[in-house]
Amino acid sequence: MSKDSKHSDIGAAYDAPYSQCANLSAQLSALQQEIKADYLFIASVDEDKLATTQLVLCNAEVVENFSYSLEGSPCEPLLTQNVCFITHDLQQSYPENRLLQAINANAYIGAAILNDDGLLTGVLVGLYFNAHQNLESYKSTLLSFANYTSVYLQKCFLENKSSSQKLLINAVESMAKVGSWQYTVLTDELYFSPEVYKIYALAANTKINTTQAIAHYAGEKEQARINQLFKRLQTLGLPYCEDFEFVDAKGRKKWVRTSGQPVFDINNDLTAVQGAFEDVTLEYELKAKVEDKNNRLEAILDNLNDAVITINQKGVIVHCNKTALTMFGYDDNEMLGLSINNLMPEPYASKHHAYMRNYEQTGEAKIIGVGRQLPARKCDGTIFQIELSLTKAVNDSSIEYIGVVRDISEKLEAQDTIYNLAYSDPITGLKNKRWFERECRSLLQSASLNSSYIYAALLDMDKLSQFNFKYGIEAGNEALILTAKKLSKAVEGEYKLYKSGVDSFLIISTYPNRNLCDLELQQPIIDSKILALTNFSHKINDLEVVLSASLGSTIIDASKDSYDSLFNKLDYSLKQAKKLSPFGYYFADLDALKRYERTNKIRYLLINVDKSNELKLALQPQYVNENTFHSSEALLRWHSQELGIISPAEFIPIAEESETIIKIGDWVIDNVCKLLHQVGQLGKSTCIAVNISAKQIVASDFKEKLLASVQKWQVLPQHLIIELTETTLVSDIELVKETMVELNQMGFRFSIDDFGTGYSSLSYLKELPISELKIDKYFVDGIMDNEDSSSKTIVNMIIDMANALGVNSVAEGVEETAQFNYLKQRGCDLFQGYLFSKPIPVEQWKERL
To answer: Packing angle between helix 702-712 and helix 733-745, nearest 10 degrees?
Structure first.
């Protein structure tokens, strides 16, 4: 294609003579030196596959351009591929190519220059006088330069900048991250291309001499080295290409690769020196990272408990970690170069090479990717058992095999011991919970086929930890052994006995073709007999010590329950039994299981109840007398869409088992603050008491969230009364006290709820910032009991104590006029109960307020 053709990007991009393009000449010279080519040229290609050179370098000198046909030349493969090369006998491969004969070229490498449509518009070619076996290593460099050139040439063609050769070279340099420089001997002038200025971090066209340029090389050693190379280039004409540590004008440390070569005139006098300048910092950083990664990988391999051994296709060991040396008894590097057969006993050693050949021919392997137990041989001939996992790794054209070897000789020797430890209880000798799980799952699967029922019981020794503490672990173990013997004798036949945990026993049996109602009637009788066996005295140091246990049991339908649900129901049954200990007993019949399922359902629904819009506030007013409304207590109501109305007495204890109680408490505080804000907007002022759980007040972010709600709704802290039970106080008295004091200083008030039912210390009550004591309904109810005066005594004491502390007393659960009159006479300050008002919805409360 001719230069003015619309498809010839190179021809259109370069109408000016190439001899005027010193930068490109230097650029190609750097590339020529990099790939060590005797000839290097760029040529355009027309529609007739005719190549016309645009710039030809022969040993770094520009020579006359020429044309040749791609067909029948080494460049012909570039019509279909990006890069090609011929390492030797080039003229013999193309005997009719006169150009090759004229140049006397015997090796070739070429790269295609493509336009945006993927069409061949030019070629970049290197020719060698002698054979060159390493041409493949230059493929990436040549192709990268061709791609950069192609991109910029296409840009020049589309923007009609064919005469802007300087811009082209600058762009190519920028893309390749390689700049060019030239030093004119006669004028002592140093020329930098824009890319070199960028690497130096200097403004373009800054005047700089060789001394200033060399001063940027890092340290005296580097400066002396580049100085020596530069002088040798000028005096002896010796080219160079080396890497240096470098510091740019902004003080940034870099690595640069610089090359230099002489320029002679027709009289063979040196007129200039020129070369390339490249920032290779990234390359060095990558090398450092790779080296660091390799070092870390090697350290990891050396610290593995398993041996790691790599062999090549010939079965020769090319790498091993320190564990491998230790495992097989070799010193450092002794294993490298050995055949893997040395680590195998007969007959494996003799058969290994045949096995490898078979695998390479057929691809069939019984060990690759699959762990396998095999014998191995140490350096001294000792045979031991290993577990080998082999992986195939393909690296470029080579294949390696990586083996991970684990010494399992000790494992095999201890297999019986491990089995017993895994599935037996070391004290009683009974099968443990893990074995119970295996058998139970199998039993459930088989029993579900014929709709059988399964009986299971969980028996737990009462206060065995206290027994151990008092009499010693050995005495406790003897008690467990004796209990196991008695239970084993009792459950012989259709029952199976297992040990669970430290002081528990599991019992299981199946009931095929039995009526559930009959089973539920009969089973408690059987359970009571089993429980009675644990009621025995144990003689310790001439003392008769009575032991006891609690038993929870249930019967399930094998076709409807899983192992997990069975064990959860057993755990539930035992917890209920423990409430009745010692000798607590609870049989989870159908009704009990329904209650259990409801509890689980409530526990699940509570997870997101604060976001469900199912929670509502109710408020119970507190009165100074029959008609004077003073303040209120916020109460919580839950109307579940799935379960209907759920009492706080039912869901609050469940919520307190987890962090759910904190989320609910946060919801109540925020909504009470919102309510105080709403009534404040109506010109009303009142106080509302909010119950706070032990988990909530000791949470690390309680104060922050409380203050956030108060600030959000612009509520005065003194309008919010925080109610704490005595149980909450003693949960973590020091932390609770610290929190109360801080919040009281901000204006918050505190009330002690259900006072008299807990265990709070009077000394703490004196120190805590309390505003009121609430008399529990239990004692208020006792006021009406004429036969028992203890309640009145306690009520009187609480009122007197409140007066002594200077705080209000609040009576809860006031339902009778006589109770009110008595409390009023005794000096009680506030009253709360059905006599005055039931808890009422928010809107009704607003009207009453």
So the answer is: 30
